[in-house]
Write a structure and sequence with these properties.
This protein is an alpha/beta fold and 175 residues long. Helix content is 33%, strand content 27%.
Length: 175
């Protein structure tokens, strides 16, 4: 019997094993359970609880945004322009974006939204957890030895995900 003929049944067994194990387990309820779509655009979707009383909230506790680059972004930067992204460069970009997000989001919530920012849980407080995923920063090549410039047609893109919860009960209000 050839090696290939012996490996095929083994491969099928390995593929079916996780499916059989999952079929007996109860799957956890998704984070968006109990939420309905209240606004959906070409590049956005807002899910919110039907029971949420938004007028009950006057303060916001904002977590620091977590940042994740697009898969293979660092590798692509190296291959495209020869630019080596070091760990401290990656950390600097993430920290700078998290700081900028906090500054802008806080300004919008306090000036335009009329909310008070707080660091503690309590009644009337919304707890917002932001995540920036698929961050794809586009930048021109580094300066070369000649006089000239480089242009890009985009600054990049990212996806912003927010979980908004009641700070005292932890109930998901919107996502």
């Amino acid at each position: 019997m050839s090696l290939c003929m012996r490996l095929v049944p083994l491969a099928w067994a390995l593929l079916m094993l996780p499916m059989a194990a999952l079929s007996n387990e109860e799957l956890s309820e998704p984070a968006s359970a109990g939420l309905e779509i209240v606004d959906q655009g070409r590049h956005s979707e807002i899910l919110a609880s039907k029971e949420a009383q938004w007028s009950d909230y006057n303060a916001v506790r904002l977590d620091r945004a977590t940042i994740e680059f697009r898969k293979n972004w660092i590798r692509d930067q190296r291959n495209r322009s020869g630019t080596i992204i070091r760990e401290n460069d990656e950390k600097r970009i993430k920290d700078g974006l998290a700081d900028l997000f906090e500054t802008v989001f806080t300004a919008k919530l306090t000036q335009k939204g009329g909310y008070v920012m707080t660091g503690e849980n309590g009644p009337g407080v919304m707890h917002i957890t932001p995540r920036i995923v698929n961050l794809d920063v586009v930048a021109p090549d580094r300066a070369r030895s000649y006089i000239g410039g480089a242009l890009t047609d985009s600054q990049g893109r990212m996806t912003v995900e927010l979980d908004i919860r009641d700070a005292t009960s932890g109930v998901l209000l919107a996502s």
